[in-house]
């Protein structure tokens, strides 16, 4: 395994999104579920599969761990929240 992951929080219009990330380079957003929780997306064996040069970012879904569960949230809202995670890598996406 490469570098250790860190857990952080991002404030969005949906509330808080907790995420874990590992590595440096091109951001690679990974949705958890099949692979376990958001930390497992960056701390498990498969996180090294892309090879060097990637920053694996695993946001927690609404209502899990440190992420807010917005009232009336839809799958489209979750997708929008994930799009906001692009701010983690320094892009100019709105929060």
Summarize the topology:
Layout: E1 6-12, E2 15-23, E3 26-29, H1 40-43, E4 54-59, H2 75-84
Parallel strand pairs: 3-4
Antiparallel strand pairs: 1-2, 2-4
What would your notes on this structure say?
With 95 residues, the protein is of the alpha+beta class. It has one domain (6-88): Alpha/Beta hydrolase fold, catalytic domain (Rossmann fold, 3-Layer(aba) Sandwich), CATH 3.40.50. It is built from two helices and four strands; from the N terminus they run E-E-E-H-E-H. The chain has helices at residues 40-43, 75-84; strands at residues 6-12, 15-23, 26-29, 54-59. The protein has a four-stranded mixed beta sheet with strand order 1-2-4-3. Strand 3, helix 1 and strand 4 (54-59) form a beta-alpha-beta unit. The radius of gyration is 13 Å and the shape is elongated.
Helix content: 10-25%
**First and last CA, distance:** 32 Å
CATH topology: Rossmann fold
The helix/strand series, from N terminus to C terminus, equals: EEEHEH
Mean pLDDT reading: 77
CATH architecture annotation name: 3-Layer(aba) Sandwich
Structural class: alpha+beta
CATH class: Alpha Beta
The side-by-side strand order for the widest beta sheet comes to: 1-2-4-3
Query: Any idea how many domains?
Result: 1
- Note poorly predicted spans: 91-95
Sum up the overall morphology in one term: elongated
* Alpha-carbon Rg, integer: 13 Å
Number of strands: 4
Would you identify the CATH H-level superfamily? Alpha/Beta hydrolase fold, catalytic domain
Please work out how many helical segments DSSP would assign: 2
Task: Tell me the fraction of residues in β-strands, as a range.
Answer: 25-35%
The largest pleated sheet is described as: 4 strands, mixed
């Amino acid at each position: 395994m490469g570098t250790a992951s860190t857990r952080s929080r991002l404030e969005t219009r949906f509330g808080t999104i907790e995420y874990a990330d590992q590595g440096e380079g091109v951001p690679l957003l990974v949705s958890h579920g099949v692979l376990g929780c958001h930390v497992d997306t960056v701390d498990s064996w498969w996180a090294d599969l892309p090879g060097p040069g990637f920053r694996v970012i695993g946001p927690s879904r609404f209502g899990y761990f440190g992420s807010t569960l917005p009232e009336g949230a839809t799958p489209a809202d979750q997708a929008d929240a994930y799009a906001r995670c692009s701010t983690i890598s320094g892009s100019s996406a709105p929060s």
